[in-house]
Amino acid sequence: MGRYIVRRLIYLFAVLFVVSAITFGLMHAVPGGPFDKEKALPAEIVKNLEKRYHLDEPLVQQYFRYVGHVFIPEFSKTKFSSNLDDDALFKFKIGSVYVKWMNFGPSYASRSRTVNDIFRQQLPISIQLGLMALIVAILIGMPLGIIAALKQNTVFDYMSMSVAIFGVSVPVIILGPVMIWIFAVSLKWFPATGWGSKPPYLLGFLPQKLGWSYFQHAVMPPIALGLASSAIIARLTRASLLQVVREDYIRTARAKGLQERLITTRHALKNSLIPVITILGPMFAALVTGTFVTETVFGIPGMGKYFVISITNRDYPVIMGTILLYAIFLVIANLVVDILYAYLDPRIRYD
Amino acid sequence: MADLLTVQDLETRFRTREGMVHAVNGISFDLKEGETLGIVGESGCGKSVSVLSLLRLIPTPPGKVVAGTASYQGKDLLQMTDEEIRQVRGAQISMVFQDPMTSFNPVLTIGQQVAEPLEIHQGYSRAMAYDRAAEMLTMVGIPRAKERLNDYPHQFSGGMRQRVMIAMALICTPQILIADEPTTALDVTIQAQIVELAKRLQDELGMAIIWITHDLGIIAGLADRVNVMYGGYIIEKAPVKELYANPQHPYTIGLLASLPRVDESGRRRLASIDGLPPVLMEKPNYCPFAPRCSFAVEHCWKENPPLLQVGDRHTAACWVNPKTGGERV
After folding, report:
1. pLDDT category of residue B265 using cuts at 50, 70 and 90
2. Mean pLDDT calculated for residue range B148-164
3. Does position A346 have pLDDT exceeding 90, yes or no?
4. What is the rounded radius of gyration, in angstroms, for the C-alpha atoms of chain A?
5. How far is A347 from chain B (nearest CA, A)?
6. In angstroms, rounded to a whole number, what is the distance separating the alpha carbons of residues A240 and A244?
7. Is residue B119 one of the residues assigned to a domain?
8. Which of B48, B82, B94, B107 to mutate to test the interface with A (most CBs of A within 10 A)?
9. Which of B87, B107, B117 sits opposite A345 (nearest CB)?
10. Which residues sit opposite A98 in a β-bridge?
11. What DSSP character marks residue B250?
12. Do A255 and B57 touch (CB under 8 A)?
């Protein structure tokens, strides 16, 4: 298993290389540049800016400069300056040597911040939101699917599947404001906007203080974001469980005299979870990266906004950085899924 | 010996899109303590459905047992509450299924699955049940049984899996073992081993066996009595030797004639029975075998024959005596 994980992580680098090359190419193929404004800047100033950010170099050179900054760690005997150019996502000290790794560069749009700052301050919020949405999706979706399958073609089934269809059909942009109107404005149960945690974060993404305020802020947005996914999980769980309960080994379990409850919990559930686990990987990545609307509706200072705005601004480092990071999420989420597979299904072994 | 199980007029139907399928049409038979009863017939003749009906393992809907009684220890299996029948299953009457590949849960260890009946029926602790499971596995000929408890089904070969299945069925020492084509999915050499194993275990544990198969060769060496089924009916019942020496139903005669023989010199084509198995969409008011029967007379098309006494402990559902070609009644 260890070797398998290492192999997959090496493969991750190959994926990142391809993703970065394609993104870089597409990004520069789109007309316009980061310093095109409604009122055009004087040619001299644009030229200086482009020189400052090395945009006057050939594209290939720019690409490798960027990749080098991100992937190759830099070492120094002296402490790095607090200059924006010297910032990096990881800065630490080994013995007497200072190391920095993953410098995603400065943001062209917000000059006072680097992409690393955005990752440090905004990304954790989006990860928290995405994770909670995934948990909401599982907690709502799986029980609904299980009930629907066990009580197939009864009122429970129809009700569960109605909830599921409602979940897929109503987008966050409708659900969010309605929830705010009911639970924040009318009932005043939860705050309408904001997020209850601030940097720095534990392990880069976990809030350090979990207080009442944090939970209050973290009720509505994950539900709004996760409901559609919960519907997908519910339908998949139902279909999967319905198929499993027709398997021969379920008949065997029944012939052994097991209680129906035990047949479901011990014999059917674990088997029926395998296809559900499959979609959790891509779903988690989609939830973390797809937070733009939710964050906008609930006024959450997360990553989603930067991701979308960076593209309209042609803010090259932010585009590259977010896409690379999202690619890392996707690959790691799928790796976790594959490891879970081996745990759920003993027929799957990776070495 | 005393009757252990008496089945009367069992009738099972399936509601399908095309209409009602009459899978089992009022069959009656009994099983005595410690004996082996063979049920023989081609695919779709209702042999599996009839025994699954007894343990109420028919998927309902679409299936339904519409009539009959199955009296076991003074109670009717078909009238028991769900909880009562659950306590019979696996403890007093247990089953071995056809396909040892799909009949085990792929994600649970063999130990968990074999020990399970003891835990639920006899309240064994996990450790005690595992010890007993290891003994059972040794008994059915699994080497290194104790270690293999932690293996998963896919780590066993087909024959080994069927042995494990038998161990699992017998772990609560049931009075009746129902084996539903347990050798059909196996190699011929493995089939013989499984049959030998069943005989040995019957000697040691004394349970009665209902062995369902379409293989007359297996039945010959195993069963005490045989029921031949056709189109949802039992069409002939006889002690095993009597059946092979003196078959009285044209279908049984056809089946026996179609067996390849090693003691025959020269080459001959295997005999076959012309025609197709009956469609079960309606209950015929004539003999269900008549369309394929070379002995059929007018009477066969007018009335479906009941089981008629044709010899000592030997009945057959046929109006015609195939030896003479004349009618019996």
Report:
1. low
2. 89
3. no
4. 24
5. 7
6. 6
7. yes
8. B107
9. B107
10. A76, A93
11. H
12. yes
